[in-house]
Design a protein that fits this description.
The chain has 379 residues and is of the alpha/beta class. It has two domains: 219 residues, FAD/NAD(P)-binding domain (3-Layer(bba) Sandwich); 141 residues, D-Amino Acid Oxidase, Chain A, domain 2. The protein is 30% helix and 27% strand. The strands form three sheets. Strands 1, 2, 8, 9, 10, 11, 17 and 18 form an eight-stranded mixed sheet that branches. Helix 1 crosses helix 8 and helix 3 crosses helix 8. The radius of gyration is 21 Å and the shape is globular. It starts with a strand and ends with a helix.
Length: 379
């Protein structure tokens, strides 16, 4: 039986980054995944690094997101140095386009919200926005420049993190995923794999939307898959420097010249098929935002499964089972939250403290909710 200081279930960008941090701290770490590593949400995302909340329910995540974005330049620097691989990091900002005819009120609301949360945001007239990004539609009425935001090539980042983790001493086991946690009384003693058991002082569940399928984890991480369909386009004559964002779509330029357009949010179980309706929705919104994309070549279409929690917030921290840690439920922010997630898990395991308050994201909150619901249910 293999024995480690830390066993990590899930070999995506989150699991890989946790393994990298822990290996650099001198711990013996192993990562276990049911398939080739980094092939789920980490591979399928767009790599937008924005702490701006998409809706009021996400405001609680802003301090965590800001802390993670602040770590990114240093994080990708040493990941690239250790791995020898590029991550496609682009700290060029985001331009949010507004189409509403009541843009004055909408613009002031957005700017006030961002400034209230300590986020930089600058109002732009439509003509100034198009001067910055000529690809923008003539129908755009105004825009918000979010200069401190960035993007990263999530596929390249994931590959670089996993290579850096290996080079730092982490052991990687693909094709051997976790079936269950190994309980020994009131502690988690490791993982039950497909054909073996692994003993570990600490066990970290970072298996994305598959976390709840690991026996013993659903009460702490009731995550479900949220499908997102994406399109990669290439338009040789279209210049785009920043992430372009609207209410219906985002466009993410890559260093290789491609432009990623996405993404739908669908609850269809573990179905990763692309559909005519989903792709049409993405393309229609993309062309509406940047009309020059009508002549772009379609290079790739795909769908991924994000791990969504009941309150759409991440699930981070220790469970009430000694030795068990959770790092899942990142929904649409997994790439953004990778550096801070890895740092906090490493801090807790090595020092039993964290540098950013994570109580709001405790895996115990779902058990509390279930207890309250049972207490208030009619007899």
């Amino acid at each position: 039986m293999k024995k480690f200081d830390v066993a990590v279930a899930g070999g995506g960008v989150i699991g890989g980054a946790i393994a990298l941090e822990l290996a650099r701290a001198g711990l013996r770490v192993a990562v276990f995944d049911r398939q080739q590593l980094g092939q789920e949400a980490s591979w399928a995302g767009a790599g937008i690094l924005s702490p701006a909340p998409e809706n009021p329910g996400m405001v609680a995540m802003v301090p965590l997101a800001k802390a993670s974005l602040a770590l990114y330049p240093e994080f990708v620097g040493w990941v690239e140095e250790i791995s020898g691989k590029s991550t496609g990091f682009r700290p060029k900002g985001t331009l949010e386009a507004l189409f509403s005819h009541d843009t004055k009120a909408e613009l002031s609301t957005i700017i006030a919200l961002h400034h209230g949360l300590g986020l930089k945001a600058e109002p732009l007239r439509a003509e100034d926005a198009r001067e910055l990004e000529p690809a923008l539609s003539e129908e755009v009425e105004a825009a918000v420049l979010r200069p401190e935001e960035a993007s990263v090539d999530n596929r390249a980042l994931t590959a670089a993190i996993l290579k850096a983790a290996e080079r730092s001493g982490a052991e990687i086991f693909s094709g051997d995923g976790a079936k269950a946690i190994w309980r020994d009384g009131n502690r988690c003693a490791g993982l039950v794999l497909q054909n073996d058991k692994v003993e570990a002082k600490w066990t970290v569940i970072a298996a994305g939307c598959f976390s709840a399928t690991i026996e013993g984890i659903a009460p702490y991480a009731p995550v479900r898959p949220a499908k997102g369909q994406m399109v990669a386009l290439r338009a040789d004559d279209l210049k785009m420097e920043r992430v372009l964002w609207s209410e219906k779509i985002y466009l993410v330029p890559r260093n290789d010249g491609r432009i990623l357009a996405g993404a739908t949010v669908e609850y269809a179980g573990f179905d990763k098929r692309t559909t005519a309706g989903g792709i049409e929705k993405v393309l229609s919104a993309a062309i509406n935002l940047a009309p020059g994309l009508a002549d772009a070549r379609i290079e790739e279409t795909w769908a991924g499964l994000r791990p969504d929690s009941p309150d759409h917030l991440p699930i981070l921290g220790p469970a009430d089972l000694d030795g068990l840690m959770l790092a899942t439920g990142h929904f649409r922010s997994g790439i953004l939250l990778t550096p801070i997630t890895a740092r906090l898990i490493c801090e807790w395991i090595t020092e039993q403290r964290v540098s950013v308050d994570w109580d709001r994201f405790s895996p115990l909150r779902f058990q509390s909710a279930a207890t309250d619901a049972a207490r208030h249910a009619p007899a």
